[in-house]
Amino acid sequence: METLLLSKENVASLAVQSDVISAVEDAYRAYSERQIEQPDYIGFHCGTGGEIDFKIGHHKPCSIISAKASSGGFRDNRVNYQLPSGMGTVLLFDSRNGALLCVMDGSLLTGLRTGASGAVSVKALARRDARTIAAIGLGNQARMQIRAIREVLDIQSIHAWHPDGEKAQAYKADIEGAFGIPVVLATSARAAVEQADILVTTTRGKGPVVEASWVRPGTHVIAIGTDQKGKRELDPQLFAGAKLVVDSKGQCVEKGETANALAADVIRRDQIHAEIGEVLLGLKAGRSNDDEITIFDSTGMAIQDNTTAYAIYRKALAGGVGSKFAFFES
Which listed site, 43, 65, 243, 273, has its alpha carbon 20 to 30 Å from 86? Predict the structure, then answer.
């Protein structure tokens, strides 16, 4: 039996954004249908300040088990080892027989599928006439969000804010150069948020940067940066009266913005409206009216890696992309 090896260049050539969005939709539906197994991730903090996380998911209908290893925070890597500060690798196994089907570079995968999660939530929860985005946090994931959302929405302008002026200017140049979408650099987070039909937060989650009073009726909020315990981007009061949709109830009550709102006694657990998979399946309603504030709390799930990587693997097989090797003779 042969195993397929896909490099970063291979993955980049195969990862069409619309396909990734479809794969993430499949992941959310399968999760809410209880068709997957997804144990808690394991994280190892290294003495150098870096971290390596392992996330495993089993998509039962497709008989695919994925294992993703992601490293980050190794700030001395470029100087000492000529390596990036973070790397990723994904393994795909056939759960029927345990065979290793594919080893692929995972450095692009997390960014792609996380960006796609925002786009899926826009399709399910944003107003149909939404055209203006506020971006709080302007790193790589902020760019990935725009790359994905533009596939499902005609974005007319982006109001962006970052305390570092150079980073803000770089974001503006990148987005306008890549997509031709006008970017207005706001003088404050509030000035950006007050313009939003859709608010995307992708900060490091070191403290609330969005106050409830800034968010207009009808806004759809995509909360990305609060993916671990202790992180926060949103004022918990924003959840009072808003429609809250999460990627995973089990995860979001333990971490994410939902956990912060629960801890502040702003909402109860039974006030979580739905998992997004339930909305996609038609089991729960999406947006009810144009004045409703909707919040999508995205903490990230291994099953998103699973379905995205499997879609890339199948496309590679069909196109003859990558190289094959054998660990053992069958």
Answer: 65
